[in-house]
Amino acid sequence: METFFQALIVPGDFLPHGLCLTWRPELIWTHLLSDLLIGASYCSIPIGLLYFVWRRQDLAYKWLFLMFCAFILACGVTHFMGAWTLWYPDYVAQGAVKAFTAAISVMTAVVLWPLIPQALALPSPAQLREANGRLHQQILERQRAELEIRRMNDELERRATELSDANRRLRASELHYSSIFHHLAEGLFVVRIDGPDEFRFEALNPSHERQTGLESSEIAGKTPHELFPPDLADHLVERYRACRDARRPIQYEETLDLPAGRRVWQTNLAPVLDSDGNPTKLLGTSRDMTDHRALQEELAQASKLATLGTMAAGIAHEMSQPLNIIKITADDCCLMMEEEGAEADPRYLKDGLDLIGTQASRMGEIVDQMRSFSRRDSPEVVPFDPIQPVRGAVALLERHYGSEGIQLTLDAPATASTVMGRPGRLEQVVVNLLSNAHDAITARRAVDPSFGGGAIHAAVTEDPAAGRLSVIISDDGTGLPPGMAERIFDPFVTTKEASKGLGLGLSICVSLIGAMGGRITAENLDQGARFTISLPTRGQSFPDWPPPGNGDA
């Protein structure tokens, strides 16, 4: 080993390489310049590679670049040694340099080949540009997605805030309506619709519980047939079904036997619709009308008696005629018996007695009509033929009015569809309207001496398609003052002198007809006025024309 290092320093007995070239200048310069230029180039290349490796910190296989730097640098030193040995025979040193170059070359070659597949797998610049483009696109898309996410988060926060506010308002609304439901003086109830013909009670408010004697906890979730007798349950289901099918509020009056007793109720039903417009529940309000109807009954009876009072003079005049006939006939028969005794003509006497009996029967009919009209009719609501009460009212007044030169006529079929209500009340309303027509004709006679007649026409018509029956009273009297048709049915509104009435008659009529689900309208004619009573027939219990003002006077 010592001899080797000595040989590196001491050239020994070797001859310079230039001697082999016979010191020919052209050969010497060719080898010298070639080795120097190659060596200089080989030395500059590692410097560039080292700078590249230093600047690219993310470079893959950096150690391989360093091995190439060492290999190329060793190759450059080998060429410098070739130029050196042209004059100095340091072949041992040159051999050592070549050995080092060979070692580093072999090592580089050994590690290079396994790395070639991996290096080939590295993307090309075009692929890198394409990948960078895709990456840039992904970055843009991600940025847009982030912006969209932020926008959606902002929208979500806004909606969450709105939902929170809506929930807060909903809770406040629920508390508000719950307070109304539990503290309202009027009875409220809720019915759930579970099927085509299945209705279940959901709740009653405390006021309705007190009025009916029912407990909300006891009826919740139950059907009418589970709580009430069959007739009453069928009646309730019919009303609920009608409101559901109509999909609009309905109003009606009913008399029910409940735990609190037999009471008269004015009920309003309104459907609660879902987003598709289908009814899911029924909201009902009920007002106890028992005391009100009792008072109204007394008022109607008083009105009836007052009507009889206004008719008393005419009826007395009407009864005076048969009384005069009876008196004259009786006096004539008595005179014959006094003058002729047993020889009096029995046929003449029999004819006289028959005439007296006929006139007495006529007076009896008048008295019976008066008694029938004045008595209290049954409070029961029943189906009835409206033709009979109308005929009764006309029969009660036609002779009286005829004696005054007023023609009273009736145009009505033999029978009509039945309506629900009280026959006596319909007769009372018709009598009231006929009496008003009589007063209007009398008033026209007072202001127009040339008007000597007067006619009142009553008619009954029916519209089966609409489920409506109408009773029409028209006259050729003074008619209604301008603007009075809209107010004539209000309480204490009258076209007569104060001494002839308080203006309650038509208001009572509206109430009585409203209790039967009907209405009364008034209009002027070219000469006179016309009043129309409209009633739903029994097959159409829930008409599409609700009575005005709830039917209350």
TrEMBL record:
Keyword Coiled coil: yes
Residues in PAC domain copies: 250-301
Top-level taxon of the source organism: Bacteria
Annotated organism of origin: Skermanella stibiiresistens SB22
Keyword annotations of the record: ATP-binding, Coiled coil, Kinase, Membrane, Nucleotide-binding, Phosphoprotein, Transferase, Transmembrane, Transmembrane helix, Two-component regulatory system
Catalysed reactions listed for this entry: ATP + protein L-histidine = ADP + protein N-phospho-L-histidine
The name this protein goes by in its record: histidine kinase
InterPro entries the record matches: ETR1_N (IPR058544), HATPase_C_sf (IPR036890), HATPase_dom (IPR003594), His_kinase_dom (IPR005467), HisK_dim/P_dom (IPR003661), HisK_dim/P_sf (IPR036097), PAS (IPR000014), PAS-assoc_C (IPR000700)
Record-annotated PAS domain positions: 173-247
Coiled-coil annotated residue ranges, if any: 128-173
Transmembrane region(s): 36-54, 63-87, 99-116
Record keyword Metal-binding present: no
Signal sequence segment: none
Molecular function GO terms recorded: ATP binding; phosphorelay sensor kinase activity
Residue ranges of every copy of the Histidine kinase domain listed in the record: 314-539
Assigned EC number: 2.7.13.3
Entry-linked NCBIfam families: sensory_box
